[in-house]
Write a structure and sequence with these properties.
Strand order of the largest sheet: 1-2-4-3
Oligomer: single chain
Helix content: 55-70%
Number of strands: 6
Strand content: 5-15%
Structural class: alpha+beta
Number of domains: 2
Shape: globular
Length: 302
Amino acid sequence: MFDRINPNQQITRTVLEALKKCTFLDKTNIEEQLLQMKNAKLSPLVTSVLRAFESGSIVLVYSEKTMVPTTIPFFITKIENELKGMIFLNRYGKMKENGSVDISYKTIYILMESAYVALRYAKNPSLIERNIGLMKICMKTYSAMAMRIFNKEFALTVAPSTYESINYCFARFFLEHLWGLKTDQNILHNYAMMVCLNKPDELEMVKMDYNNTTIIDIVSLIDFIKTRFRQVGSITVRYYMERYINTYYQSALLSMDALPYLFFVIEHTLLGGFIMAQPVMTDILRTIPTLKTFYSELSKII
C-alpha cells in the first residue's frame, strides 16, 4: 500500500526533507504532557513507552515548513545502526514561542505507544506473531473494517453467503500477509472461519478458489474478490482506498496491509484518541468479545 501512495518516492523525499530542517524534541518541549501521561496511566504500557522515549528509542520531531502527510503517523528507521520510532508532531500540534508544543497529551501518548509497539515488532516480529490471542483480535478487527465498507457499498447483509465469504477472504489475507502466519492451509482456513457468524455452504469452494489463486497483496486480493463475487464486481483498489480513508481517515490507511498500523488503529480506539474515526472504530471493536484481553496479551510480550 505504501508503494501506491508513494509514487516516484514523493513521500520518502518529503520525510527526508523534513528531517533535514526539523527540530528534535526532548522532554523540555512536552513537560506538561509527560506529567499528565504518568498521572493518567492511560495504558499498561505507559512506563515502558516513557522509558523508550527517555532512552532515545522513540524520537519526536517538529518540522515547521515541511509537512509529512498524516498517512505516516509514525515510522521506524535506522539511525546510527539502531532502530528508532520517529513521530512528526507538527501535524497534531503547534510549537509555542517558548519551545513547548501545544498538543493533547493523549495524542502524543497514542503516537508514542504505537511507535513503541511498531519498534518492538520491527526488532523481533515473532514476539507478537506467536500470540494467538492477539492474532484473533487483530484478524477480526481487520476483516470487520473491510466488511464495514463492502456492506455499505453493496448492501451485503441481504446476501449473507457473499458477506461471510468475503469476510473469510479478508481474514485469510490478514493471517498470511499481515500476521505472517506460516502453517498448513487447513489451519489457516479454520482460523479464518472464526470471523464468520454463519458458515455458508459455498465456503469450501471459496477456500479452494482462494488456495488456487496467487494472492500476494491487497491489489490481488481485491481482484480475486471482484472476480469471484459478481455482486461486488465494480470494486477497485482505488475506490476501496478512497472508502477506507473516508471511513477511518487518512491516518488509518496503512493498516490495510501493515500490521503495526493496525495495532495503531486498535490502540487509538481503546485509548480514546481523535486522530481517526473514533465512533466507527468503537462500533467495530465492540463486536469483539475478547478485546478486553488486548492489553493484557500485549503487556506479556512488549
